[in-house]
């Protein structure tokens, strides 16, 4: 009889966990995945990437019809919002994709053990009332919303909500206050602004989108303001009170000063997410968390405990689905005795607003700290396709090493920046120089030509400006 029930037990079926399970099974390992949610796919498929993109896509159409973008192209319509149908198509997208993962589990003979898992020892995990043993256990439990002390989130009531509640609002709020000008606040704030809400974003720092290139952050502020969002930067929230179906949010300057109150029908708390480790019984296996409450691993995604591995949002690094997926593949390959590697220097990040904000590699500020650099920039206004499509906002910026010309970072603001950034990531993976990109033939007319021209600008020779 085998020593363990499984070669691999993955805890959590988000993009990290389900991908790890599939790759482990593909590599011939007997694999199970414990997931407590009703459906597979984790945060990303159920309440994150997918439903938010469904609402962003639909609301973009509404906005284009309502605010003149379609009329500019000779299409005159007065849109009528059917929010129930918009929500239904979001739920359909989620159902289709989560069901797809269930199909892939069956196809790859992965056992889905339903319930929340807790370690008994390093190779024994309790899931509900079942005890499961495995030679290797991969922790892929993801993350949950960081609460704001003193502000209670109640998604059912729908007045003070987190991202999950903000995806499900039953009516368009007249006034929405977003606490936190990061990715969630700007994406979901954009959804409801497009559908008619007055949106105020309260951000503690002096710019939106922490972690992105400074110039991109500055430009994002201008663009969101132009779109009608009210931005309260360098401002902190000190409290929120709910009375009936309204809320009052108290804010004051981050540096201290007079308090102000903001009235809202809906308040979205989006101040970050934190690793999900509660109830895992990590104390039983002697696994300690770092200061940020995350599980530390080595380069192979092995924890300090033999046979226990960790990937995705629960470990350090950007909390992104594609980072979790790549780590899922790598950890399975490492468990199988292969060499699974993730290059954490080249993980693209995208904010899926209109325009999109995307970047990969170093910001200009980080690159300057490391040594001499050259920077090439090209405005989307001078890109023929963007101009033709009436999409003038944005630019591409390429940061290269001054001596070797190797590309260190690429930043894009453009309607399809999320798609454009893939070629930049690939170029960087291949160790490209800006000259390599400048001499790569790009199809015309495409937004991506702006990447070629920004690369040409690194050495001062773009054609169209
Ligand atoms: P998760 O997806 O969080 O999955 C973890 C799973 O583990 C969950 O299903 C949970 O139920 C389960 N679990 C937890 N504890 C246990 C336990 N003890 N036993 C059994 N199961 C357990 N990222 C992007 O890259 N692009 C985007 O566009 C994007 N949009 C987002 C929009 C929103 C609104 C949010 C909230 C997040 C978004 N993200 C996006 C982030 C992305 O969702 C996460 O980075 C990604 O889901 C992390 O994957 P994971 O597998 O590590 O964890
Ligand atoms: P975030 O870290 O992106 O932004 C949080 C913002 O809140 C920061 O700008 C921070 O300065 C601000 N803040 C913190 N405390 C505050 C306070 N008291 N008052 C005012 N502002 C305050 O976190 P967010 O938006 O909650 O998203 C969580 C994670 O989910 C992100 O880190 C991201 O990785 C992931 N995500 C990714 C998406 C994508 O890839 N498109 C989409 C949505 C989420």
UniProtKB/TrEMBL annotation:
NAD(+) binds at residues 180-187, 203, 272. It comes from the Bacteria. Disulfide bonds join 44-49. Binds 1 FAD per subunit. GO terms for molecular function: dihydrolipoyl dehydrogenase (NADH) activity; flavin adenine dinucleotide binding. Residues 347-455 form the Pyridine nucleotide-disulphide oxidoreductase dimerisation domain. Residues 6-328 form the FAD/NAD(P)-binding domain. Its cofactor is FAD. Gene3D superfamilies: 3.30.390.30, FAD/NAD(P)-binding domain (3.50.50.60). Its EC number is 1.8.1.4. FAD binds at residues 53, 141-143, 313, 319-322. One of its GO terms (biological process) is cellular respiration. The active site is at residue 444. SUPFAM superfamilies: FAD/NAD(P)-binding domain (SSF51905), FAD/NAD-linked reductases, dimerisation (C-terminal) domain (SSF55424). The active site is a redox-active disulfide bond. Belongs to the class-I pyridine nucleotide-disulfide oxidoreductase family. This is Dihydrolipoyl dehydrogenase.
């Amino acid at each position: 009889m085998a020593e363990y029930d499984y070669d691999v037990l993955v805890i959590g079926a988000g993009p990290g966990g389900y991908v790890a399970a599939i790759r482990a099974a593909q590599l011939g390992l007997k694999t199970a995945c414990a997931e407590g949610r009703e459906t597979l796919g984790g945060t990303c498929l159920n309440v994150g990437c997918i439903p938010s993109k469904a609402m962003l896509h639909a609301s973009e159409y509404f906005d284009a019809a309502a605010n003149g973008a379609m009329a500019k192209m000779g299409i005159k319509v007065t849109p009528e919002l059917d929010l129930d149908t918009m929500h239904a198509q979001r739920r359909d997208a989620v159902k289709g994709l989560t069901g797809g993962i269930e199909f892939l589990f069956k196809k790859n003979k992965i056992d889905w053990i339903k319930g929340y898992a807790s370690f008994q020892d390093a190779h024994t995990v309790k899931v509900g009332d079942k005890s499961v043993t495995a030679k290797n256990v991969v922790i892929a439990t993801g993350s949950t919303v960081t609460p704001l002390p003193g502000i209670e989130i109640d998604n059912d009531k729908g007045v003070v909500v987190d991202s999950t509640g903000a995806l499900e609002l039953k009516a368009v709020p007249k006034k929405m206050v977003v606490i936190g000008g990061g990715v969630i606040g700007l994406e979901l704030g954009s959804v409801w602004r497009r559908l008619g809400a007055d949106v105020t974003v309260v951000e503690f720092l002096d710019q939106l989108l922490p972690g992105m290139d400074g110039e991109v952050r500055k430009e994002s502020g201008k663009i969101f303001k132009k779109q009608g969002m009210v931005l309260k930067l360098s401002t902190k929230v000190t409290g929120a009170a709910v009375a009936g179906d309204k809320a009052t949010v108290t804010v004051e300057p981050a540096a201290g000063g007079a308090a102000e109150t903001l009235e809202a029908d809906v308040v979205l708390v989006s101040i970050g997410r934190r690793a999900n480790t509660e109830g895992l019984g990590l104390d039983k296996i002697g696994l300690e968390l770092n200061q940020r409450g995350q599980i530390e691993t080595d380069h192979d995604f092995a924890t300090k405990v033999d046979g226990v591995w960790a990937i995705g949002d629960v470990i350090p690094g950007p909390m992104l689905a594609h980072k979790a997926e790549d780590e899922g593949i790598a950890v399975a390959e490492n468990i199988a005795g292969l060499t699974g590697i993730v290059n954490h220097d080249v993980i693209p990040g995208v904010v899926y607003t209109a325009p999109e904000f995307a970047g990969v590699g170093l910001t200009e500020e980080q690159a300057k700290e490391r040594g001499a650099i050259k920077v090439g920039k090209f405005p989307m206004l001078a890109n023929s396709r963007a101009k033709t499509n009436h999409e003038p906002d944005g630019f591409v910026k390429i940061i290269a090493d001054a001596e070797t010309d190797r590309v260190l970072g690429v930043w894009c603001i453009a309607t399809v920046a999320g798609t454009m950034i893939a070629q930049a990531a690939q170029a960087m993976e291949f160790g490209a120089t800006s000259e390599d990109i400048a001499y790569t033939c790009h199809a015309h007319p495409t937004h991506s030509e702006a990447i070629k021209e920004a690369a040409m600008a690194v050495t001062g020779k773009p054609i169209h400006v």
